[in-house]
Amino acid sequence: MRIILMLIKKEFLQVFRSPLLLSILIVAPMVQFLLFPFTADYEVKVLHIAFIDNDHSSVSRSIIQKFTSSQYFINHGNPASKAEAEYMMLRDEIDFIIEFPKDLEKNLMSQQKSSIAIMANAINSVKAGIGTSYIQNMLSEFLQRESEYKDLSENTLSQLFTTNIYWYNEKMNYKNLIVPGILVILVTLIGAYVTALNIVREKEIGTIEQINVTPIRKWQFLLGKMIPFWILGMSEFLMGIGLMYLVFDITVQGSLPILLGITSIYLLVMLGLGFFISSVAENQLQAMFIVFFLFILFVLLSGLFTPTEGMPHWAAYINYFNPMSFYMDVIKMMVLKGSTIHDLRIQVISLSCMAIILNSAALFFYKENSR
Amino acid sequence: MQAIEIKQLNKSYRAIKAIENISFSVAEGELFGLVGPDGAGKSTIFNILATLLKPDAGEVSVLGLDLIKDYLKIRRKIGYLPGIFSLYPDLTVEENLRFFAVMYKSSIKENMKLIRPLWDQLSAFKKRPAGKLSGGMKQKLALCCALIHKPELLFLDEPTTGVDPVSRKEFWDILNSIQTQNITVLVSTPYMDEASRCNRIALIQNGGIIKIETPQQIVLDFEGELFSMETSEIFHLLAIMEKCRLNCNYYPYGNHLHIAFYGNKAELLTEFIQFLDEQHIIYKNLEAINPSIEDCFIELINKKAHA
Prior knowledge:
Chain A is mainly alpha-helical.
């Protein structure tokens, strides 16, 4: 017991004496919380458009008028030719080109078919997708009202309007999705990165050899690493919860103690992963690469940026081995939806199994004798 | 009982044989030195004896215990100072010492008597991070940490490499005083001049032992007649020495040239002086000297090469 307490004390002394590590631990969550949610934003606020008007009719002019008066669109005028409009798009001045065909008004009046071209700059795929549907909506709304005005006999009540309500995130506020995700990233980084690098550093500077010739057992050594980093990880998490409330006014909808409980299981998974990597890697560079590779894989598959529901089947199978994906579910469901432990039993069981397997593997592979 | 007994020890790293058929034993209370150049296999022997490395073949017993089966018992009874400084550089002198005391379930107070001569010098830097100490002080601290549990056997892998001459002498004085506390010491060094401070030394080269003897006996066993001389044309002389068909060994030794003659000393010396005059070599202080351990080591290597 005295040995483990001493190991923990040593670890904290080192953390608090390393200005870099300490500032990473404090500054990293701040920066992530204050920067990331505002930049990783899928909301489309302003669309820049230009019109190619081949019709020069009252209809085309009133459509342009409608777009210009909308706060979402900024009209960049009517370029004389298509080539000029495309050049504007090339220079990234506009996101969309709307082209009216020659006989738009005439065709409309005579109930004939007519098509309006919408050209989108698809470099920003989100903007292109969302913008196109905005424009389509506005056009159909306009044409509908136009036809109502022209032909009152048509039964307007039979028209079906669809409106969307987003549950658990009513305003479809992207921050509500990103911010809990950052919590996950924080805990993961502390767990895997800091632990792996810490142990590999001991290998590099040779202190692990000095530890290995002492009669302490490897479980004592691992416990002496695990407890301090677990404490650090939990403090980071609590700090994250605090920032989430202070900056974004997001409170945990579910039970906080249960969330903390699941978080500590997830931390054990990540600590075990860190240990395991440190027993495989020979230097900090190797450890960095392995953690980095896994981290990117975990994040992309976790559903932070793209929903897991949209992934192909095989990706879902890979996700059975992705602890971050389970934990991302837990965080989103507990923070936003207020799920109970019963709803999350699969995630909790999976994470617990991973924690046990990874830590046993680390204990098995950690060598008291080298080579 | 012997403190260390090694029989036919072998260890390879993949295709490279680090040590080959090494056998020696160290008596209790002995100060035993492993002397040899870098890469001779000294650190491998230490790593095996300190239970960090498993041997490929051979019998090893440390303090009468089996190396593989009783490694935990051995760890309790030995102190090990690795070849590279491996204490926590960001912990202070005092914190490092306390840390290792606890790891061995001991305390600084308990064994203060043993480390007193070292601690008296270190205590002025108690609050300094270990990484910021000078080379000599680092080694003293490392020795303190290796002694804090009063081991029966102490392994020191090149403890004076990179340490200034004054601190080196101090360090060896301390080792001699540790020996009087009934602690067996196995120490390695690439510095031949330090070897004379050991009770017995094993000369090691290319993973094998060339000779095990007391330093005094090794010097007495020197077979040739050793001369030393000074010349400003040392490299020119070395280049033309081939022409001098005398039964001798020659090698630069610091800024001197050492020549060991084998045979009739007076005759060989006269012929050598004649050769020097023929080649118009200007020299001074040509005189007979007593061989050092290094001279003996060179003679033994040459003998082995010609055998």
